[in-house]
Amino acid sequence: MYIFHPGMKKKVYFLSGFPRAGNTIISTILNQNKNIATSGHSSLPDCFFNIESVKNTYTYNNFKNSKAIENIQKNLVLNFYKDWKQPYIIDRGEWGTPYNYKIMEKFCPNEFKIIFLLRNPLDIIKSYLKICMNYPNFYINKQFNFLDKTTLHRTELEEKIELIIKKGDFFDVSFFTYKNLQNKKNVLFIKYEDFADDPYTEINKIYEFLNIPKYKHSFNIKNQFSINGIEYDDSIHAAKMHKIHLGKVKNFNYPEIKLPKYILEKYKGVLYEY
Predict the structure, then answer these.
(1) pLDDT by residue (tens digit) across 106-115?
(2) Would the N or C end of the chain have less CB density within 10 A of its end CB?
(3) Is residue 274 part of a domain?
(4) What are phi and psi for residue 127, nearest 5 degrees?
(5) Domain count within the chain
(6) In a domain, 6, yes or no
């Protein structure tokens, strides 16, 4: 049952974070509350970027109607979710990059708040490697297969790790995003490990941060992620990137995967220094 009442405005908040850090499972749990709709990976940032890129066109520069562009941007967030009936929307995207943050800081229809999920980077790397083991056509495996093996000086495991952490990929961009948000007062940081240990407390932190009436959630997961009839189509990844483990919430740190010493030293203590 929705709690909308006359005069109530839909509120939109934002979820971001590291890959393999519990984004999908936390979204699935939040969506048990019929008054919350947490999206999958959202194309809203792309919409803003594409509208902003109009300013690079010949037509715009020939007749600079900047107010017209801004009018579209002002109404974009609520129009994007116009057909979603829930009063609280949580949009999942890369909202912590300097460009996206600046855009949403200006055009968010309500107080701009971000939930940012963290995880031990060593376990993120292991999670990616586990996917590599289970899905031969995963993009990291494909990139490795294209490498000239006669020029390699590292093991296959090490080469795949280098592909995972390379500049510009999800892992690297997430570190950049995290550093940009570290000192922002409108950001709630949630550690995946804390969530796995005590999901009740961490979920309640989200409710308190967003000022949403609390809900009694189940932390025994019975369904894969879906919202308003939309599911992930992971065929684009050639791997079930968003498949969550059903049952009780727990942390997976894959002890069977042994990382090389230089990676252990590189990321030891990183991220949780705050």
Answers:
(1) 999 999 999 9
(2) N
(3) no
(4) -65, -40
(5) 1
(6) no
